[in-house]
Amino acid sequence: MTRNAVEFRNASAKSAVDEKRQGLLTHAIGNYLGKRDTGRKRFRDWEGARKQAEAIKNEALENLDKYLPQFIEKVKERGGTIFCAEDEESARTYITNLALDRGVKSVVKSKSMTTEEIHLNGALEKKGIKVLETDLGEFIVQLAGETPYHIVFPAVHMSKGEVSDLFHQKLGSKETSDIEGLTMIAREHLRKEYCSADMGISGANFAVAETGMISITENEGNARLTMALPRIHVAVVGIEKILPRMADLSFFLQVLPTMGTGQWMSCYNTLVGGARGKNEADGPGEFHVVLLDNGRSKILADAESRETLRCIRCGGCLNVCPVYQTVGGHSYGTVYPGPIGAVLTPLLRGLKEWGHLSYASSLCEACTEICPVKIGLHKRLLANRRDYAGKYGPMAEKLGFKAFAFAARRPFLWRLAGALAAVGQFFYPLVAWFPGNPAKGWTKGRMLPRIVWKSFRNMWIGRGGEIS
Amino acid sequence: MKITLFIPCFVERVAPRTGMAMAEVLERLGHEVVYPEAQTCCGQPAYNSGYWPEARSVAEHFLDVFSGAETVVAPSGSCTAMVRSGFAELFRGTEREQEAAALGERTHEFSDFLVNRLKVTDVGARFPGRVAFHDGCHSLRELGVQAPPRELLARVKQLELVELPGVPRCCGFGGTFSVKHPDISIAMGRAKCAAIVATGADFVISNDPSCLMQVRGIIEKKGLKIRARHLAEVLAAQ
Lengths: 468, 238
Known about the structure:
The structure holds 2 protein chains of 2 kinds.
Chain A: H1 3-16, H2 19-41, H3 46-62, H4 64-77, E1 81-85, H5 88-101, E2 106-109, H6 113-117, H7 120-126, E3 130-133, H8 136-143, H9 160-171, H10 179-196, E4 199-202, E5 206-208, E6 213-218, H11 222-228, E7 232-238, E8 242-243, H12 246-260, E9 268-272, E10 286-292, H13 296-300, H14 322-327, H15 338-349, H16 351-354, H17 366-370, H18 377-392, H19 395-408, H20 411-424, H21 428-431, H22 440-443, H23 456-462, E11 466-467
Parallel strand pairs in A: 1-10, 2-3, 2-4, 4-7, 5-8, 7-10
Antiparallel strand pairs in A: 5-6, 6-9
Helix pairs in contact in A: 3-12, 9-10, 15-18
Chain B: E1 2-5, H1 9-13, H2 16-28, E2 32-35, H3 44-49, H4 52-66, E3 72-74, H5 77-90, H6 97-106, E4 107-109, H7 110-117, E5 126-134, H8 137-142, H9 147-154, E6 157-162, H10 177-180, H11 182-198, E7 203-206, H12 209-222, E8 227-230, H13 231-236
Parallel strand pairs in B: 1-2, 1-3, 3-4, 5-6, 5-7, 7-8
Helix pairs in contact in B: 5-6, 7-9, 11-12
């Protein structure tokens, strides 16, 4: 087992019995599920909407060679700068160099999983630049020295009391259990920072090829301030975020919040096309778009796994996943947790190191059922397992399945094995201590099923049932 | 109608009564029931674990055994789903692709078969008690079987059906997942059992014997007061 796999196993085992954390998650997600279902009913035909979302994303991905250059050209027309980053390192280097070159002392950031993916904060801080997350949830996890627990709700695992303690400890604020009060504490702290920051860094929910604009969906107004007040705006955008047309955007601006937060529309939807124009009073002096590949084009080239690039990071699959809700977001040890994380991480960062995550699923298909862009998540998990098992599966497991297949093709041998198991189970206590005992995991919290001596076949024949 | 029994491997050795109960119900409805004794397993454990060549070789045996059967019925949504969708993946682009697809169409989950093929909801069963129904995920999401078991249970005399609250949620079994990630699997199973206990039900009923194996394991370990039964056993009771 790789180190990552061992870490996942240990962390998930610990979280699996953390009922307090699970309770917070269940409560928050329970609220969301109600809103999500009401939201879906606002669509005359939600299933039709999913199909349309799938079709638009497919069209965008299959014609990325056309839409990406179109987007780039439009951004450049308005004076924006484009940097195509092949991997996370080149993206980090570009942004840190830009910051150093422009004398940036402090950066404000709006919520962006893509910047988490390239581990940008640490890189900037290493160069002595102050980085501040401005999304409330992100601000909380940053203060706590943690990573986001959820793609959409970064601090969903923390209680009001814990946030209050954290603010008190780090910001010296008064204790309060009032959410509005807590928000005001964060707001007061953050407002000053927007004005003094030299650079604002955002992600993008969508990038419209037709107009060369990025679209940001948010509820707090922090992203607008991040993009408008500092003198430089950098947007880090995964290449899969491209939408062909503005008309597609208006559709996705309803689909994303419906699934993401259970809202019809988010409070703020902002389109950004570039830096401050000639006759404009506000806005940054420079606009940079970092288009991030970081493994995406490799996925795009594979017809089978390409569908995973349709993901709009709504977090909907996390909210229905019993495994995510049992082990929590941090156990995965990845930027993207939950079903989409278990699918995407091995594809983006390597099957050998991350393939174990594709086994962290009971394959209940709740994720596939809910995905607004119709990614066959459970099928992708199965495909990852297929690619993993042959190459990196443990030797004992490989041999075990070879033996299984050998016996399953030979009915007599199969029956003999069954009969032996019926007898052998009585000797189980003798081998229960054995480290390689495969039943050990089962018996941790469950009784073993009894293997009967009189099998169905015996019963059927005994009753004179017809055999073929 | 001549019905061929597909008895999943663990039903054969762990829950044979489930298979017998299913056969009894089908016979009671006047059908001829036959059991191909060369059957072993559908290959799902290997398929779900990523060992597709091994799974394919087991699936080939399954095809050999069942290809001549007109109508195949199984007391498991998960095993039925394996034959329908798993085989489609395993045999894609091979010369047995059509054969596998055709067999998939002729293979049915028990409750779905009764209600949607035989058009029967009342099988004349009597089962006193308060029961909660647990949807096996593959029955529910892969096969889309949600109403049939409920329609059947609604017609069982002296049976009171209670619904588990919220969205149907996995019991945590997940095949080899249950031993690869026992801590997660057990936590999910405990949550499931707690939800069942909270309904005040005497029994948990499912159309998937693998879920019942998981739930029963936890019930026995924790000494819970609920009992686990397969739908076929309820329908066979008189």
